[in-house]
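pipeline/complex-builder :: batch 7 item 3
reading input block
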Amino acid sequence: MISNREEVTAAIMAAKVSKGIKWSDVAAAIGLSKEWTTAACLGQMTLDKQQAEVIGEIFGLPDEAVAWLQIAPYKGSLPTAVPTDPLIYRWYEVVNVYGNTIKELIHEEFGDGIMSAIDFSMDIQREANPNGDRVNVVLSGKFLPYKTY
Amino acid sequence: MISNREEVTAAIMAAKVSKGIKWSDVAAAIGLSKEWTTAACLGQMTLDKQQAEVIGEIFGLPDEAVAWLQIAPYKGSLPTAVPTDPLIYRWYEVVNVYGNTIKELIHEEFGDGIMSAIDFSMDIQREANPNGDRVNVVLSGKFLPYKTY
Amino acid sequence: MISNREEVTAAIMAAKVSKGIKWSDVAAAIGLSKEWTTAACLGQMTLDKQQAEVIGEIFGLPDEAVAWLQIAPYKGSLPTAVPTDPLIYRWYEVVNVYGNTIKELIHEEFGDGIMSAIDFSMDIQREANPNGDRVNVVLSGKFLPYKTY
Amino acid sequence: MISNREEVTAAIMAAKVSKGIKWSDVAAAIGLSKEWTTAACLGQMTLDKQQAEVIGEIFGLPDEAVAWLQIAPYKGSLPTAVPTDPLIYRWYEVVNVYGNTIKELIHEEFGDGIMSAIDFSMDIQREANPNGDRVNVVLSGKFLPYKTY
Amino acid sequence: MISNREEVTAAIMAAKVSKGIKWSDVAAAIGLSKEWTTAACLGQMTLDKQQAEVIGEIFGLPDEAVAWLQIAPYKGSLPTAVPTDPLIYRWYEVVNVYGNTIKELIHEEFGDGIMSAIDFSMDIQREANPNGDRVNVVLSGKFLPYKTY
Amino acid sequence: MISNREEVTAAIMAAKVSKGIKWSDVAAAIGLSKEWTTAACLGQMTLDKQQAEVIGEIFGLPDEAVAWLQIAPYKGSLPTAVPTDPLIYRWYEVVNVYGNTIKELIHEEFGDGIMSAIDFSMDIQREANPNGDRVNVVLSGKFLPYKTY
Amino acid sequence: MISNREEVTAAIMAAKVSKGIKWSDVAAAIGLSKEWTTAACLGQMTLDKQQAEVIGEIFGLPDEAVAWLQIAPYKGSLPTAVPTDPLIYRWYEVVNVYGNTIKELIHEEFGDGIMSAIDFSMDIQREANPNGDRVNVVLSGKFLPYKTY
Amino acid sequence: MISNREEVTAAIMAAKVSKGIKWSDVAAAIGLSKEWTTAACLGQMTLDKQQAEVIGEIFGLPDEAVAWLQIAPYKGSLPTAVPTDPLIYRWYEVVNVYGNTIKELIHEEFGDGIMSAIDFSMDIQREANPNGDRVNVVLSGKFLPYKTY
Amino acid sequence: MISNREEVTAAIMAAKVSKGIKWSDVAAAIGLSKEWTTAACLGQMTLDKQQAEVIGEIFGLPDEAVAWLQIAPYKGSLPTAVPTDPLIYRWYEVVNVYGNTIKELIHEEFGDGIMSAIDFSMDIQREANPNGDRVNVVLSGKFLPYKTY
Amino acid sequence: MISNREEVTAAIMAAKVSKGIKWSDVAAAIGLSKEWTTAACLGQMTLDKQQAEVIGEIFGLPDEAVAWLQIAPYKGSLPTAVPTDPLIYRWYEVVNVYGNTIKELIHEEFGDGIMSAIDFSMDIQREANPNGDRVNVVLSGKFLPYKTY
């Protein structure tokens, strides 16, 4: 019996590696972006019934796992507060080094409030570059203002 | 006598607030992006002599402070490993929720390696939107592959 | 010279205690709720020019402090991640004990998403009760759904 | 053999997902609020014999599990001191940003003491709103004064 | 200008040491237990006007400090989550070693709930003993039951 | 094969819940206080051969488990440095709020030294009280002075 | 079914110890340095198909494990942020004691930037020495400058 | 009056920046490596009388500071256990990613023991390279074996 | 299949308790001190082939376990940075309370350097004493000086 | 005005360095061991009136400081839970590596209980040795047994 979403994620990863499945193909199969689809498969988003069944078929998951995919998961994909993996750490470093800068510039443009991480999307693309290709990422989040009351 | 860069940052912030200086004007004055300029003023980047003197003039800094601006600072702009400020936390949350997703997709496209946080730039823009304006951010970092040796 | 918002908060608290000012009177003076007003005085919200000047007058603050009140502050009012003060700890305890319950029930009603802490208001009232008066608090936050993209 | 309450909670969650049980139906079955009932099923409250047997029947639990439901559990529902799940984090953020405000206002109204998290109830409701529905939560806790001795 | 209660505590301790004042004498002067009185002087309890004035006189405090003594303080007297001082650590050790035991026995006697740390008193006494005198401490806290709702 | 004391504690708890055993009855069976007996069953104290055999019989433990009960365990009964369970947290809170007070008063009475947590006993009793029954706890620890050498 | 790289690393270590395999022989078999090869076997680097198959044969790994070796792993080889093992701790100590020195000297020579840990190699050699042999390590990392933008 | 080595380090850094002193020139003045000299100036090593006087002259330090330079300091140059500065973090990352590899290879060559961080030297050099210059670092530490006793 | 040294340690402890083996007898069997022998059995030291076979026979270990005993282990015997067990905590307390004292006195006698924890031995003995027997421990570590380079 | 013992320790250290005082001479002046005397001067022990006056004279302390020396201090001499200074870390390492060994051997000899860190003394001596002089330390602590009650 499956008692949490982490077991489903582990089953997906095991199937992905043994079958050589690609995230972009999974995304195409459910007709959504590769970013959202991967996050969902890694236990961070909630799928609807149809999406879950497609995912279940691709990875060969049991019915129970398909049910879990339709439940809002306890989110957070990192084992430690400061990530040790170098790729993920660079992102943490950007937040650490540029954190106050991002805050100052958003406040200068919009006033007090935040950039939403819920009404949010992300797009990761390769940019060809003669000095070495670049990873280009566009983050888009709705500005949510603090209001007085 | 000034004994660290934090004192220079504090002096810049104090002058900024009391004089009502805008980051975008400072950036224009040294002819660089508002993102890099703000980060430099907040103690995260190193200015050359000419840039430092312009900054010193804008904020009314003593010569010693201008000297400190030309020294590579001890970087890291946040007081705690997990930021408490809601705007900055949302970025930490993105790294936490999407961390493994970013890792999977960059590896799927590029193989093992990282997206540089050094050969890196950031551009923050307002996107008008009838459902509420959005903050759009483009991050661009060179892909650096792990190689065998 | 004032170099951060914490110094302004300290000046407000010092004046509040020595002059015996009440938060509810401050709130009435700027025509907003006592919850928002107190949070603003404690360095968590941003005041507009008129509000800041009223606050400055009430607490006898210098012009520089009035300028700082109009700048979006670095938020977070607690000295440690787990609060030691018993009154505040009880709230942390509620989040700890009921955290998963809140998550389950909001998801059951609304689907995956969050209750906003930005488009948010709070109202704290005394409820007379023969077994001992109660603190009644109403929290109201907009539901923000995760969407697919 | 079941050796702790966490195993019972896991069994309840597994059954809930595979059978599609709703918390509000469970609450109706034992005649209590959905908030208390969910917390109890998630290992935070103690059930009496009759309630435990109803829960056991709904989720198909073995007798041992029903016995564990009647034992006061080691409480705390979060895996880390600062929650990573965005929905729960927003509540932590409220405590962090408004912590001192809550403290000031309760003390201003009641004097020194706390709002109980034991003689406490919580009610979570959807409020229809043309700008987007809201989550409204009422927290009610007895005020407990510090006394001299 | 005094901007927090810690400065008042520091002034009390400095005066206590330089004047050789005893806590038991301070307690007698305000007619309360030595435990409550000491905690209040160390910034953990709130004094009424009359008590604060007596304390102010004993320790030679300025008026502002006397005002601060009447404000509910941010409580917590230890610099680290796990105390390093051997005397205080032994108490932490008792909680660590006997924590589950205390929990089991209170639940066995009273059912689910807590022993209040607010409706609480403490009495510390020397017990003469031929094998070495003992510190005897009586802790008394009201039992507060969790109730269903 | 049992490889640590935690497995023995888990077996004792499982048997206690499924058989409905009471700590006070266990204590009576080995002729010691309920506090020491419970702590021993929860893996914090060392039993002699005769006591261990009685415990083994009551809880239906295998011989190996009975052997482990006679070995001094690695002590510490809490899963986190700051306990999340509300009942145990209240004790941590007492240490935190009253820590310096306890230190000051023991030093005022005895001089520099500690109250032993080893040559120590604890007695937990219900005190009937018309305003709600109270938990009364007597802690008794030998005073151990620091000496010069 | 193998669901993460740690299980592969455990299988490699188990085989290494029971068969008495040496890292330098493994390195020779895939024609790379002993440093990179060992890191790869310990779950820190990604092998290509041919390398993975050789490793799989040497350690007797199942096909699934060979597939995992070709996937970029979540890196970080230490169980705690500050390593407890004395050999590894000495390296952490070097970073702690000499950290600012390394920073100052690289900045003095190269300006602001970093020494890459990705475009990086390491060579560990024994140096015979009459006062006791020495471990000599050469670290080589590309300098990556921060640039203005 | 100077009461700790950190104040001396701060004075050295302030003088270095305002006077534009280079570490390599300081090293030449006392006839030692730039690595050891910089570490000493940054409060990590102990200077003899003659060296301290030269340093005192170069940086214009008072006699008390020169005395402090001759006292073994409390070592450790980083403000947090995991460094936030990107240059220093890369070194921490090397220890984290390669930690077990370093351990395995030193043990394979030398048996159980450590590479000393005391009988240790470090040499940092620029290596010209058409693909971008490299930082080359040689670490040399005596191997110290664990022995039986 | 055994995949780490901790499993060997667990097997040794399980056998020790079920068979009633004494550390001093184990030490005698391999002809070394009880301190080194116990540390080795607890996974902190490396045994040679002959020693490992004797240990294997005493505790009834499989061949694989005997192989693991000859591999340098990842050292560190405590589950938390600050130990919770009272006996071990007292040692941590000694380091905490006397840490700076030890540092000052070794530097006063030897100059800057350390007392080795590798070229190190420990001897624990009972000292009969009419006021209660004492634990006497002799620690002996080679002094290793920091040298200039 | 002196408001805590740390200021007294800082004054002692400043005077020690500027006057070149040796701990062994201070110890001789008050007729106690160098270990206890140094610990007392570093804020870890309590001096009697006569001792405090001698210390005050040696270091040129004001009367208030002499008063503070006679007050039991808040003990703990290290700035972080895991010490960064290499000399002190080696002691922490001994506790970490040998912690369980020490526990096992003391329990084997004495049964369950602890080695006191209060009824405790320490003696640090140089041992001449042709392979390099050694630091020999004798720790002596009373064994305190856990008893049943």
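note: The beta strands of chain E are 113-127, 134-145.
queue -> next item
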